[in-house]
Amino acid sequence: MRQEYNNYTPEDFKVWKLLYERQIVNLPQAASQAYLDGLKKIHFTADKIPNFDETNKELLQLTGWQIHVVPGLIDDDKFFQLLANRKFPSSTWLRQLSQLDYLEEPDMFHDVFGHVPVLTNQSFVDYLQELSKIALRYIDNPWAIHLISRIYWFTVEFGLIRENGNVRIYGAGILSSAGETKYSLSDEATHYPYDVAHIMGTAYRKDVFQKQYFVVDSYEQLFHSTDQIEEYLQSHADKPEADFAASV
């Protein structure tokens, strides 16, 4: 599949511009430095939907990664295979004007605006690639994949990082949501230090703001935690929680 850039409509450009301008004002005091730096490196703007061919040239030079077009949500095997090969799966469709605040599945704004800037950080993408390689080793174990999905969720999607004494956002699920950007850094949100066992034991929901967030000290900490992730799986992958075991 390819991004059919000429098929984008005036409404698509309007949606991108509205979402971009609404969120960009929140980010200087909220987003991680790696995200803000990445946004500049790949030259995203409000007036132009990103062209994947152009963005891929930048990404390839920076970290060796590329955006890979997918039709939407894909199965775990394909998803982790792409990531293990330094290809980030992204849809090309944008939400409608009537859907600015809620979507049941991620669109291009989430995939590209939320995720791609941080793909310019080498330590982060090294973590993402190694996590995906671990997932592929356990791909036939549904409980292990469920545990890995918790790690992915609370880092890649909803992760926070401490920078110069301040908590900042690097997770795409937060960065693509104006509401959760404000909530996740507010006094209402619960923050925990990044801990593999804690995250592996924490369920999540997709339809509400998160009850808790996990804060890393650096992207290098994420990468070095992959050994702990594999060790945890070695001792827990065959011991599913009761509610999970009952559902499969």
What does this structure look like?
The chain is an alpha/beta fold and 248 residues long. The chain is built from 13 helices and six strands. It has a four-stranded mixed β-sheet.
SSE blueprint and pairings:
Blueprint lengths: L9 H15 L8 H9 L10 H11 L3 E4 L6 H9 L2 E4 L17 H8 L6 H16 L4 H16 L2 E4 L2 E4 L2 H4 L2 H7 L5 E4 L2 H5 L11 E5 L2 H6 L1 H11 L5 H6 L1
Parallel strand pairs: 1-2, 3-6, 5-6
Antiparallel strand pairs: 3-4
Helix pairs in contact: 4-6
Brief synopsis:
With 248 residues, the chain is α/β, with parallel strands linked by helices.
Rg, Cα atoms, Å: 18 Å
Fraction of residues in β-strands: 5-15%
Output the number of helix runs: 13
For the termini, the CA-CA separation is 33 Å
CATH level-two architecture: Orthogonal Bundle
Catalytic activity: (6R)-L-erythro-5,6,7,8-tetrahydrobiopterin + L-phenylalanine + O2 = (4aS,6R)-4a-hydroxy-L-erythro-5,6,7,8-tetrahydrobiopterin + L-tyrosine
Pathway: Amino-acid degradation; L-phenylalanine degradation; acetoacetate and fumarate from L-phenylalanine: step 1/6
GO molecular function: iron ion binding; phenylalanine 4-monooxygenase activity
EC number: 1.14.16.1
Based on the model shown, name its key terms.
248 residues; alpha/beta; Phenylalanine Hydroxylase; four-stranded mixed β-sheet; two-stranded parallel sheet; 10% strand; globular
